Amino acid sequence: MNKYFNRAIIGNGKILACLDDKAELIRLFYPNIDYYQNIHTYSLGFVFDGENKVYWFKDSEKVNQYYDGNIVYTKLKFSADNINKEYDIEVLIRDYALIEENVIVRKIKFSEPLSLMCFSKLNSSPERLVSGMCIMTSLIQYSQDTYFASVPCGSNILRSQINNVQKVLESADLKLEDYIGMSDNSAFLLEPKKEITLFISLEENLKDCTSKIDYLKKQNEEELFNSVKKYWREYLDKHLNYFIGNGKYSNKEIDIIERTILMYALLTNKETGAVLASPDVDENFMICGRYGFCWPRDALFINDAMILLGMEDIVNDFYSKWASITQLPNGLFEQRYYSNGQLAPSWGLQIDETASMIIGINKLKNKHDYAGIVSKATIGMIDFLDENFLSKPCYDLWEERRDSHLYSTASIYNALEASREILKDSRDCEHLICEIDLIQPKILSAIKNEFVEDNVLKRSKYNSITDISSLGASVPFGVFSANDEVVLNSVDKIEKELKTQNGGYLRYKDDLYYGGNPWIISSLWLALYYIEAGNKKKAQDIFDWVTMHADDKGFLPEQIDIDTGKTAWIVGLSWSHAMYIIVGKKLH
Q: What is the pLDDT of residue 1?
């Protein structure tokens, strides 16, 4: 599955759908926003009356794709020369999710009446076998626990086929061999119409599925659309006004802030408050370890941004619900989890994940309510210190190497400080606070002895390569002040060795991940440092560089191609957007 870029996303916090730039539906997650990924291929096309050739939307020319709230519009064109006609054909697709229903709505408008062809192949396996059936003038594809219905309205099904569909797709010669079959791919062709509504509904059983089909057939799509549009407009206005206040932002900055607000609404699990790092792009682990999970470390920055955006209720859910599910018996938190709190595939402990949870809790208004979680985590962190009061070897925050790291140890130092503040009024924790008071100065001394070389910060005990994460010892963990000589020297080295020709910054020297490009995170991390050091001019320059490299919908990627300046990898990274919000607020 080589669908490595999501160009637009829609959803409602329960389901999450991803589109490419020609409105191809390439992912649809249910019953959670990160699991299962149901779609292998979901393609739409059209057939001229009296012909059998299918013209697929994915083979068209893209005219435009844009958002209105969390509603996506895609305009396509088929040039006359390419379809052997005397005129062009234009298609406008409007995609959105209903707010309270597990339903995606696809409104298709043709420039003339045409027959819509739909080909749907779902991800299937021996353990989760997908079959198909055509009933109630709809296509239902189902496994034991998921019923996926494609429900056309405004146009009747002319022909459909459940089995052996791929052999006949080019000719659109569908044969109704049976209404049900053991096939994970099926297709249907509708009678010619100029406007068609296609509902995609997901339910857990056949009874609920057929009831939902009956319900959808009776709906007025325009009324549904207006309701969804109103919901997202009010949602956006509420959080945008909260964030902007009296600040003055450019139009492009506003675009990114708006997209952040709307994206976070889609990437947040409604039940737990957990936010995905990004919708997944690499289900088969061909290039990376995947992104469709929740990391406690990312959450530290994301939750800071959400508080600034007036989303504190989601942050409270994260710590009160998600944290209680995910904390281990030894008090620690693993590397990453599904948004519902279940453990995700991980490859090693990162102690900064646990530290990040404590530091985040300390920012809450009701932080003292979390004494139980914090005390357990604190004991687990202290146990993770070695005999020299450094972090025991674990994976670094980039998840690439095991060592005793500066970032890991500095996170423990800061988390112990946060623990002291959270637990200070708890009589049951007096002994633990005394232990913190004894240990914290020893950690500080160990950091200065072990992670400073030639008056420059080392990223790890056995590795001195220049790394943006060394700034963590200053921002946000406060082990060193921003104007400490060792930090100033480290920043000079970062400027010399990590700044690229296009203006952004690498994570570390000789970083080769996905081509070795500047990251939004590393660039904005340096901007945060410059703000703390009192150099807002430099911070503003970096912020402007990031603003310039958002895509046309306001999404920030993980990386910017070092040569072309275009998005290189992962569109809509929650951590990138979080850093943008944090830096933007400090600059305005």
A: 42
Q: Tell me, yes or no, whether 372 and 471 share the same domain.
A: yes
Residues 415-437 pLDDT 10s: 999 999 999 988 889 999 999 99
CB 243 within 8 A of CB 310: yes
The range of the structural domain enclosing residue 146 comes to: 8-231
- The Cα–Cα gap between 104 and 70 comes to 12
Pick the range with the lowest mean pLDDT from 377-386, 406-415, 563-572.
Answer: 563-572
Query: Which residue intervals of 498-534 are DSSP H helices?
Result: 520-532
C-alpha distances (whole Å) from 421 to each of 234, 303, 375, 436, 513 are 37, 19, 12, 11, 39
Would the CA dihedral through 209, 215, 219, 224 be positive or negative?
Answer: negative
Answer whether 141's CB lies under 8 Å from 184's CB: yes
Residue from 521, 392, 375 nearest 436 by CA: 375
The verdict on 51 and 135 lying in the same domain is yes
Degrees, nearest 5: CA angle 5-230-557 = 20
- The predicted pLDDT at position 283 comes to 78
> pTM higher than 0.70 for the full model?
yes
Residue 238 covered by a domain: no
